Amino acid sequence: MTHTALLVMDYQNGVVSRFGIPSAVAAARRAVDAARAARVPVLFAGVEFRPGYPEIATSNLMFGGIPQRAAAGPADPRSTEIHPDLARRDDEPLVTKVRVSAFAGSDLDYLLRAAGTRHLVLAGIATSGVVLSTLRQAADLDLELTVLADACADADPEVHRVLVEKVFPQQAAVTTVDRWAASLQD
Question: Where is the Isochorismatase-like domain (predicted)?
Fold first, then answer.
């Protein structure tokens, strides 16, 4: 699997606790373990803003309310950390993004190009958010894509199903963690 990388997106404490989907966390952990065993680089991506949220326009429907919610009380400082079940290593890049896509406001494209990555494997929360947005941008960058359906989760199971069964296959191979892990051994 030369030139392949696994990108694990928004598996942050705050996101995981909000979605509450332990099966997706377990699947993402199996994907990370399989990638490490096969020496496939693992990258993590998460959303985080500067103090005072200068990156957020009030017109942004998804993020615009964050400054007001933050004014009501401080968030848990660990909410933006990668979930401990994934055991991120210091040598695994953490891409900080300021919008939905893992490419938005981050250095992800530079990291992938510098490593010669041509095949990107995606896992993330939410399927209709970071996974969809990142997949579209990665496809526009001519990357070969795989989506690990069981390592993705969405608040709406029907939206998740439609995306992984009908939308994503137009631009990516869609599989399970176990099938992908087995392919690494071939």
Answer: 4-178
| Domain assignment present for 37 | yes
The answer to whether position 9 is within a domain reads yes
For residue 56, give its domain range. 4-68+81-184
The answer to whether the CB of 43 falls within 8 A of the CB of 6 is yes
d(CA 118, CA 142): 8
Residue 162 lies in a domain: yes
Q: Are 5 and 134 in contact (CB under 8 A)?
A: no
pTM to 2 decimal places? 0.90
Q: What is the DSSP letter of 168?
A: G
114 within a domain of the structure (yes/no) = yes
Number of domains in the chain: 1
Give Cα 38 distance to the centre of its chain.
20
Structural contact between residues 124 and 10, judged by C-beta atoms closer than 8 angstroms: yes
Q: Which of 67, 106, 80 is nearest to 18 (CA)?
A: 80
Which among 150, 143, 147, 184 has a CA at the least distance from the CA of 169? Answer: 147
Burial 94-115 (b: 16+ CB within 10 A, else e): ebbbbbbbbbbebebbebbeee
Nearest to 34 by CA among 1, 3, 11: 1
